[in-house]
Amino acid sequence: MKDTLTQSLFVDIFSTPHLLEQFNLKQWEQLLRILRGADMLGSFYYFLDKNAQLSNVPDFAIAHLRSAKRYSDRQVQQISAETDILQQTLQTVDCRPIFLKGAAYVLNKSSNHLGRVMTDIDILVPKADLESVENALKLDGWIEKVLDDYDQQYYRKWAHELAPFTHPERGATLDVHHTIIPPISGITVPESFLFNENIVLEDGKETLSESMVILHCLVHLFYNEDYEKSFRDILDIHLLLLDYERNEDISQICVLARNLGFNKEFYYACSITDQLFRTQRVAAVNSCITPFIDTRLTNFFIRNIILAALIPSHDLLDKRWNKLARYIMFLRGHFLKMPLGVLVPHFWVKSRRALVMLVMGPHHYEK
Amino acid sequence: MNTILDLGIYRFAIEHCPSFISPSLAALYDNSLGLFPEKPIDYHLTIKNTSLIRRFIKPQVCIYIDNQRPFHPVKKSLLLPSLEWALNWCIASFDFNHLLIHSSVIVKNGKAIICPAQPGSGKSTLATYFGLRGWRVYSDEMAIINLHSHLVRPMHRPSSLKNKSIDVIKHLVPEAVISPVAKGTHKGDIAHVKLMSRLQYDELVDAEVVAVVFPKYRSNQKLNINTLSQTAGFSRLVHHAFNYNVLGIEGFQTLKSVVDNSQFFDISYSSYDGLSDFLDGLID
To answer: pLDDT above 90 covers what percent of chain B?
Structure first.
């Protein structure tokens, strides 16, 4: 085996973990760097644990993995504590927040919650409650993050969430959403899908239903514009689907996706996890989904653009094409979320700033 | 140029290390520079120029840690202190296998005294002075304590002096090996001091902590020593620990073991006379 870790070898580890038995120390070193850059060190510890590979990891690497595991274990514990406090805070205004993303994975104990690092907590509240929620949060010491004027205006006008809150005492960050996709995209998810049929846990905390959690995860990924660390997201989708498939038939999500207008995104998820993790999902949902999309064009897009963009962004793996693919996904993400009348002025401001930063160095706007 | 810094406990690679800081690194790190090229590296730093134009006008350099850039870019002349901070940043951000306390560590006869303090209290200067006067400095910045043995571990690194302490050490220990002074960092002027050779470092072993001394340099003040209770000491140590909140039960047990074995003191001083006898008394 050669010394360098290639893109295909990196990907193959996740479907064929015993490949790691052949890894030399230099390859482990490269793997750890890539995983750290992709926020996946802690998750990888648990991946090895699940696949009974921990005993084959050399001392050098296991030390780094254990360290990351300690950190993520504590974060998972903090999420439990933070969600307790949020639940109580919002009870004062009679609002029951729906916990999204990382917090939902932790609360539901989904397979992907182990080893996770999270930068913030996401909650969903009915649009009508936004103002009272904002006030209750401020009373509990949450502070709205100061953004520059332009970004502040963007949030207020176009996004599906308030500007992020921070809690200086507890060091937490909170995103408050009123729907799961920006309204400006033209897609509206009816409130009944978001606030009914949810999972209510023993302590009264709520998350979206299992299939909506998965749909949200893939909408989040495929409407995103930043693909630097998205390998973790596709792995999330894969693990969530594995959990789901244990008890349910995946074609049920397919129907939900079709009803909500996320046909294509669901097909992306099935096809990409098939190719990365050797599953057979497209075959399972074929009759339900392929009549509604142009599979030839979609497959071309997946194979040449999305897969290349999903490779973790790191000098050790990146080829020129990966960077270009990520840039295409960046433009696409913006395009999906903004009609041209908004997008053009937005790019004008951002690209003027980019030009200034190119000349003055990337730190010109930092205060 | 790519180079390796082997600190004993951690191994760093510095990619694109500019040749102008090589002499300083060679003087401070001795044979730890470029040691064991075949062994794997824990943390990779990459030094980059910030933009094409900046390469010629007011050149800046920036340190990347894989994809992260924790610090603002700096003038070329301030690279060495930034590099030292980047090493600290990596350790404090990524190592949760040890309890890390913001503290200098001095050791004699296999017994360690740790001196936790806020920046500017004089903990590095104290460590540097005694490191050049017969003690071994395990670190001037953080006590790295093993979660199983509860012993403090040595790092091979220079100490870092700020502002007036640079002249204090130059005056008290004229023979010290000191790097050129980096003037005008966000913490003022900085110089680094070599405290031991790699050969001397290799003889060090993990040590038991027997005392915790909270130092406070005050000009024109006679040596003043206050004994602290272990309870007060415990809570002050928690306050100075980088990662106690992350380590949970292991962190508590490690700290408890350190506290059980230690005496605690608040000291203020303006000269090192008398301090020497006091410190020697703690390890007898």
So the answer is: 80
Q: Which residues of A touch B44 (CB under 8 A)?
A: 33
Contact (Cβ atoms closer than 8 angstroms) between residue B141 and residue B119: no
Residue of A130, A137, A347, A324 whose CA lies nearest to A227: A324
Q: Which residues of chain B lie closer than 8 angstroms to A33, CB-CB?
A: 44, 66
Alpha-carbon gap: A154 to the closest alpha carbon of chain B (Å): 26
Nearest alpha-carbon partner for A237 in A9, A14, A8, A13:
A14
Question: pLDDT per residue over A130-181, tens digit each?
Answer: 999 999 999 999 998 876 666 666 666 666 677 889 999 888 999 999 988 8
* H-helix or E-strand spanning residue B40: none
- The string of pLDDT tens digits covering residues B208-252 is 999 999 999 888 888 999 999 999 999 999 999 999 999 999 999
Distance from CA of B205 to the nearest CA of A (A): 20
Beta strands in B121-236 (DSSP E): 136-139, 142-146, 152-153, 159-162, 182-185, 188-193, 208-217, 224-228
Predicted complex ipTM: 0.92
**Residues 6+ positions from A327 with CB-CB distance below 8 Å:** none
Residues from chain A contacting residue B50 (CB–CB below 8 Å): 361-363
**Helix pair A340-360, A320-337: axis angle to 10 deg:** 140
A335 reaches B (C-beta below 8 A): no
Please indicate if any CB of chain A lies within 8 Å of the CB of B111.
Answer: no
Domain segments of chain B: what residues?
Answer: 1-94, 97-284
Distance from the Cα of A291 to chain B's closest Cα (Å) equals 42
A226 DSSP assignment: -
DSSP A192: H
What are the sequence ranges of the domains in chain A?
A: 209-367
Give which of A129, A144, A118 is closest to A90, Cα–Cα.
Answer: A129
**Is A88 an 8 Å CB contact of chain B?**
no
B174 touching A (Cβ < 8 Å): no
